[in-house]
Amino acid sequence: MSHAPAYSRLQIALHWLIALLILAAWVTHEAMEDAFETRLESGVLTPNPHAILGLAVFVLVLIRVFVRHRQGAPGPVPGSSAMAEAAALWGHRLLYLLMILTPIGGAITWFGGIEALGEGHELLGNALMIVALGHAVVAILHQLVLKDGTMTRMLRPRG
Ligand code: HEM
Ligand code: HEM
Predict the structure, then answer these.
(1) Is 118 a pocket residue for ligand 1 (Cβ < 6 Å)?
(2) What residues flank ligand 2, with Cβ below 6 Å?
(3) Digits of tens for pLDDT over the chain (159 positions)?
(4) How far is CA 26 from CA 20, 32, 68, 115, 132, in A?
(5) What is the pLDDT of residue 2?
(6) Which of 116, 121, 119 is nearest to 105 (CA)?
(7) Domain boundaries of the chain, sorted by first residue
(8) Is 33 near ligand 1, meaning CB less than 6 Å away?
């Protein structure tokens, strides 16, 4: 497959917007736990920030996957080893998977009122945060230690 010269403006905007929304969804999870208890007791679904933020993540990730499929991604960072390339590929795939599964699990828990699924959703949400944190640390190390321009790929659009 031929590689795109860089990420597009749209891809970069989606990356940072989704990262912000995931952080916001994570920060609001405690209020959601209270709302979920009320929902289980009364059966009433009240709009709440955690669900809205999480659903926004889900919709934007679907758009992002579509755009990624159409526009591709830049090739391996010049000078990177085969192992680093594989780690980036599988790390990014894992992030996409968690970004899709976490809100789906949350939505089934919330709309279906299925208490038992809450724990699975919590596990996925926390895994997403941990993998994303590791991802951010690696990106910062690329920037400060390796100085190989990886961060620039997610800051400066092609063209
Ligand atoms: C990227 C998106 C999301 C992230 C990172 C996330 C993360 C979390 C986390 C960490 C918890 C804490 C669970 C606990 O401590 O018990 C939680 C709870 C919850 N989330 Fe999400 N969530 C996301 C999306 C959603 C969506 C879209 C919905 C519903 C439409 C949702 C519904 C819930 C519910 C109902 C709970 C409470 C579960 C319980 O108390 O057992 N979440 N979420
Ligand atoms: C919840 C937070 C985040 C998620 C879910 C996330 C997810 C992703 C994914 C899936 C990719 C691969 C893009 C693709 O090829 O389609 C990517 C790329 C990238 N991310 Fe993140 N990201 C997050 C936060 C961050 C943060 C905080 C930083 C920087 C400190 C960062 C820096 C980068 C960079 C530099 C790339 C480009 C890597 C390359 O060109 O190979 N990300 N991110």
Answers:
(1) yes
(2) 15, 19, 22, 68, 73-74, 88, 92, 95-96, 99, 132, 135-136, 139-140, 150-151, 153-154
(3) 458 778 999 999 999 999 999 999 999 999 999 999 999 999 999 899 999 999 999 999 999 999 999 999 998 888 889 999 999 999 999 999 999 999 999 999 999 999 999 999 999 999 999 999 999 999 999 999 999 989 999 999 987
(4) 10, 10, 25, 19, 12
(5) 59
(6) 121
(7) 9-153
(8) yes
Closest Cα to atom 38, ligand 1: which residue?
118
Cα(43) to ligand 2 centroid in Å equals 38
Count Cβ atoms below 10 Å from residue 78 Cβ, excluding itself: 8
Give strand pairing partners of 4: 74
Return the closest-CA partner of residue 44 out of 110, 126, 128, 140: 110
Question: What is residue 28's DSSP assignment?
Answer: T
How remote is the C-alpha of 12 from its chain's centroid?
A: 13
How confident is the model at residue 138, as a pLDDT? 97
